[in-house]
Amino acid sequence: MPSPENIAKNTTYLTVALVVQKILSFFFFLFIAKTLGNGGTGEYVAAFSLSSIFGVFADFGLGPVLIRELAHDESKSVIYLGNIIAIKLWLSVIAFGALVGTVYAVRLLGGGHPPLALIIVAGAVMIVDSFALTGTSVFRGRQNLWFESIVVILNKVLILGLGLVALYLWPSALNVALTILAGSIVSFFALTYFLNRELHLSWRPRLNKIVILELKKLALPFALANIFAAVYAYSDSVLLSFLKGSQAVGIYSVAAKTMNAFQFIPMAFMAAVFPAMSYYHRHAPERLRDIFEQSFRYLLLISAPLAIGLFVLADQFVAQLGADYWPAALAVRILVPSLVFVFLSFPLGALLNAANRQHWQTAVIGLSMIINIGLNIWLIPALSYIGASWSWFITNAAVLLIGLWLARLVVAYRIWPLVKSLGRVLVSVAVMGWATLAMTAFMPLLLVVLLSGIIYTAGLFALRELSLADVQYFWGLFHRREAELITVSSSE
């Protein structure tokens, strides 16, 4: 079993790898959007959104089960891995057939859809990634994240390199998809090599009826949560494609990807804080409130300027992508305020999970899926991508409000300090927004962004919402042990 120091180091490696992956993915997408235009980009996004939904059925929650069970007993690696491979072989065939069949049915009904060849390639990526996920789950279960970090970076660098060549020489959504398939295949073989070299494991399928029934039972709650999350995340692009066509998806995706690009920030933040939340829930409940309030406040400090900055600079941002995307500016302005809702939902979800209220979190995700689909079906036919943008905004606001209510049932967090923080942040961000708008008339975009950040930070210090203790907290966040994560902010 790895030492706590090695586990912390490996977790840092993986967090850095995932952050790099998210950043590279976003800039790669912007290059795709600029090169292919809204039509080709819409085909690409719709195909992979649809395959991502069906990919959840191919995995069926088996990844988290494998992680949890191997963390308890590593000796079960061979039997669990072999039976999961056997299950995934037929699940992948079913998911791939359902994916292609769905697109073919939509075609017969006269709805919009990505080209069938693109869907087939996206489906192949779905299958390869599903098996690769099983490999990374084995390493996670053994608390060794180093090899997953290598594969994550290898995958993204390879896709980026091949993708840029494809976009330069043979620009099409299909060729971009083929580069992603190539990256996935290489990642799969890299994982195969690491599994064999480090753990002496292979992809040999095994059939044990008792084990398979046990795995299905254990996986069902995870599968349900993953299905809710995938449909919630991707149904807007899929419905836009079916109801309004690829161009609407392309315009909407620029706004949606811009907002989602920043989610690595709360993901990395909560990855560092979650172990402390779990520890305090069991051993020091009175401190759980402190770390929750601090997490909520810090993510508010980060998300507010991002949202206002993107809101003010929406026209300048979409102008970099070409005339095809001018309509996306309005979608950006509708979507980016919900960035605050998304950021603040992360500590709420982490709190529920740390307090063993996972079923509450699953219910929240399921309810959000229902709200989002209902709003999309109602608004997209009349408002197209603007309707999808409003659906996302309203859904995330509802998720935040529900999460705040449920979190209050777990820990009696103090409302007034959070309200005071919100007031100071609103004042600082309003000044920053006004200054940003004024500076755009005569300054380069990068300089505007830099000065806006300085103005916002200065405002927080002036209002005593930010202190040196907060800066020290951020600096040491990823290097401290669980019991050292809380610092008492001097700003309150």
From TrEMBL:
What membrane topology is given?
Multi-pass membrane protein
Q: Name one GO cellular component term.
A: plasma membrane
Where exactly are the transmembrane stretches of this chain? 12-32, 44-67, 79-104, 116-133, 145-170, 176-196, 217-234, 254-277, 298-319, 325-352, 364-386, 392-413, 425-458
Chief location of this protein? membrane
Pfam families attached to this UniProt entry: Polysacc_synt
* Keywords carried by this UniProt record: Cell membrane, Membrane, Transmembrane, Transmembrane helix
Give the source's domain of life in one word: Bacteria
Q: Where in the cell is it found?
A: Cell membrane
The protein depicted here goes by the name: Uncharacterized protein
Q: Which organism is it from?
A: Candidatus Uhrbacteria bacterium RIFCSPLOWO2_02_FULL_48_12
Q: What is the lineage of its organism?
A: Bacteria, Candidatus Uhriibacteriota
